[in-house]
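re: ur question from earlier - yeah i can do the single chain one, its not a big deal. heres the input i used so u can compare w yours
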Amino acid sequence: MIRVSIVANSPVVQAGLRALLEEGPGTEVVETLAPADADRAIGDVIVYDVEPDAFQALAVDGPGIVLLTADSDGARQSELWPWRIRAVLPHNAAVAEILAALQAVAAGFVVLRPDETERAVARPALTGDGQSLTPRELEVMQMIAAGESNKRIAWRLGISEHTAKFHVASILSKLNAGSRAEAVTIGIRRGFIYL
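and the output i got, formated as tokens:
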């Protein structure tokens, strides 16, 4: 069961979202909040209905956010990722789309429209301390997530095994991860890995 917190300015919007989401299988609305109280949300996922320019930045750690907005332009989504926004949907999104986004975000995924994917892959992948992963490191991250060994990564990229090990070590260092599995978990949470 996905526990959902709804954040919206209007009590009417809060009530409407509650009615829609409670009809969905596997979802339970646990609270409705005003934007000023969003940092107190206790749900597994937050459905945030507010315009991006009115979005109140939340702490980096916490539940993922599905943002419902009139401005669902993909260029804005990349600017909002550091604030845990993992899906941006238009106000007129179908209930099935919202429920699918809730399930994906609850599972730790980032939801992108097909036209946003190219732009998202081109964005700099910033780690928690402001360092960025190189395009090659992002490729290696995808292969680590797929369970590839250093030898297999080297073969697929046409590089030496030593160079593959170097890339893996650099990724672990930049993400402050103790293992490949932890690096994958961090990579999924930060939107570096697309599954």
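The chain has a mean pLDDT of 80. not sure if urs matches, ping me
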